[in-house]
Structures are given as C-alpha cells and as structure tokens.
Amino acid sequence: MCFRVECKQCGKTSWGGCGKHLTNLYAGIEQGKHCMCRSWPGVVVPNQQQGTTATQQQSPASAFASASGDVLLSYNLTI
Predict the structure, then answer these.
(1) Which of 19, 24, 37, 67 is the most exposed place for a label (fewest CB within 10 A)?
(2) Nearest to 13 by CA among 23, 1, 31
(3) Do the Cβ atoms of 54 and 31 come closer than 8 Å?
C-alpha cells in the first residue's frame, strides 16, 4: 500500500510504499504540493511550463490516468 510522506529536501508531499497505488495517492494531493524530487511511476504529471501532460512511463506503452484513477495503456505496434 502507498502512503504520503513529507520530502526532507523540499518539504512537499512525496510517497512511500509499494508504488502500485500512486495514481490515487497523487490525485488526493492538492495541486502544487507534490514533491518532484522523486518520480511518480505510472502517474501522468502535468507539465507546468507548457500546460501539457507528460508521462514518466513511455515505451513501449504510454500510460494515461483517467478521472477515476485507472491507468490506461496505449501500445504502438508496428507489424
């Protein structure tokens, strides 16, 4: 199970635990309060500079988090 922890470097909210529940944990943290000193695997993190989204998990699949917190995978296959 994943849980909130305070980052000792920046003081914002980071995570501890197994890493399998990060989409729900990330969604429950107020915008701007997320620690970015450590990655959030599988979470779509908004790009603050351009207002677009970037994922931290790219190849071979791209991950997208839905409003319910589910992670959807999109595969690019060449046959």
Answers:
(1) 67
(2) 31
(3) no
